[in-house]
Design brief:
The protein has four helices and no strands. The chain is elongated. 46% of the residues lie in helices and 0% in strands.
Length: 96
């Protein structure tokens, strides 16, 4: 018995030269580097293009829930009792 040896680890070693598939892929990509870069960039732009049509918006309570729900009615009562000022008051001159 060898004390420093991990069982079955010797069988799991990969060949030192690497995978044959990756060697073929890399040889072809590196042979036509400009074409490969252009195709890669085009592919990434194509899969990202649906994101260009997204429109984000911060929805108000009225847009999220119908006005007949109890939570919206409670929200309306609170907003009526504590109205927000239209614009924040400016700080006095000379005070930071």
């Amino acid at each position: 018995m060898e004390w420093g040896r991990v069982p079955f680890l010797g069988r799991m070693r990969r060949p030192s030269e690497g995978s044959r598939v990756w060697k073929v892929v890399l040889d072809r990509v590196l042979a036509r580097l400009g074409l490969s870069a252009a195709l890669s960039a085009g592919f990434l732009l194509a899969i990202a293009s649906p994101a260009a049509g997204l429109h984000t918006e911060t929805l108000s309570v009225e847009k999220i829930l119908p006005s007949s729900t109890a939570i919206v009615q409670s929200y309306d009562h609170i907003m009526a009792a504590f109205p927000r000022p239209a614009e924040p008051e400016p700080a006095p001159a000379g005070h930071a």
